[in-house]
Amino acid sequence: MSLSNPKPLIHRFAHLKALVVGDLMLDHFIWGSVSRISPEAPVPVVEVSRETEVPGGAGNVAANMAVLGAEVHVVGLTGQDIWAERLLTKFQNIGIHAEHILRTPERPTIVKTRIIAQHQQVVRFDRELRTALSPAIQKEIGDQVERLMPHMQAVVISDYAKGVVSWPLIDRLVFLARRQGIPITVDPKVENFSRYRRVTCVTPNMKEAMESAGVRWVEDEEGVERLGKQLLRQLDADSILITRGEHGMTLIEKKKPPLHIPTRAREVYDVTGAGDTVISTLTLALAAGASLRDAAELANYAAGLVVAKLGTAYVTPDELLKVLKTNRHG
Q: How confident is the model at residue 313 (pLDDT cuts 50, 70, 90)?
């Protein structure tokens, strides 16, 4: 890592205001153990020991940024149901500003329930409605963004293709961020990929990158570089950071050589939410003054920490500083 002293950078996270716009969810975990197969069907019987809930989707990005120290504001949508109450309570407990979240009877709060036994995910079931948002709700989301943007130092679009991130909203966010000179990053979905033009950084995984470029197979790092450069030209973005699982990440910037970053994960228990950790750390680092390369390196370390934790998890500034110190001295 070229950033020899990351401590001042990470400490600056606490002085940043960040906006997260996107699809909010509640991640609901049912934990238990399996010791037998059901006599009714060839499926495991999970004996439930506990249940937990954490913010998911764009909410997980917001939570990651808040735990890293930033003042985080969220624009998104929930239903008017018990799941929304639970999600908003989680935001309150973490210190996330949720007063700009819209609550509507038009659709339920998105809930993803995962059943986990012996550290293995057995099944996941989703509660969601994907119908298009009404023009009135879309306008209100845009109005909330307009009110908040002048006070922000960074913006993340967390797009899960559930309806909140419309094409006009993307265009408006990019325009406002560019005008203010603040970083705007996108955790993309293939359906909207062509609209993320002129953003600071897009962070697709390999599958999303290949689908967006119409590429079926990438053999080596040179292929990843070609893929990244193609997408960069397509979007006229400042950069693209392709997350590649056990192969680390590849950063493609305009007019600079590609950077391949090997994974820092020593143990991998759960990749749930790792992409959210990457974009959260990357965005705060950029807002704090880091170069794209240093921000990507920092995000890679954060991802290595979070995949070693089971379930949707977060990385603290102290954990990040500790692993960086260990790496420099190791």
A: confident
Query: Contact 20/105 with Cβ under 8 angstroms?
Result: no
**Residue 276 a catalytic site member:** yes
Find all residues with CB under 8 Å of 1, minimum gap 6, and list them.
Answer: 294, 297, 298, 324, 327, 328
* C-beta separation of 20 from 73 below 8 A: yes
- Tracing tokens 């056990």 back to the chain, one arrives at 246
- DSSP, residue by residue, 117-169: ETTEEEEEEEE---PPPPHHHHHHHHHHHHHHGGG-SEEEEE--SSSSS-HHH
pLDDT in tens, 89-133: 999 999 999 999 999 998 999 999 999 998 888 999 999 988 889
Non-local CB neighbours of 5 within 8 Å, separated by 6+ positions: none
CB atoms within 10 A of CB 43: 11
* DSSP class of 97: B
Which amino acid would we find at residue 1?
A: M
Three-point CA angle 156, 204, 197, nearest 5°: 60
Do residues 57 and 28 lie in contact, with contact meaning Cβ atoms separated by under 8 Å? no
**Is 77:104 a contact under the CB 8 Å cutoff?**
yes
Catalytic residue, from 187, 270, 276, 294: name it: 276
**Residue 308: exposure state from Cβ atoms within 10 A (0-12, 13-18, ≥19):** middle
Nearest 5°: the CA angle 128, 132, 133 is 95
Collapsed DSSP state (helix, strand, coil) of residue 302: helix
3: number of Cβ within 10 Å? 17
Contact 162, 175 (CB under 8 A): no
What pTM did the predictor assign?
Answer: 0.92
Residue 15 scores a pLDDT above 70 = yes
Contacts of 221 (CB under 8 A, 6+ apart): 250, 260
pLDDT tens column, 185-221: 999 999 899 999 999 999 999 999 999 988 888 878 8
> Rounded mean pLDDT of 253-264?
89
pLDDT-based confidence at residue 225 (cuts at 50, 70, 90): very high
Q: Which of 141, 80, 84 is nearest to 111 (CA)?
A: 84
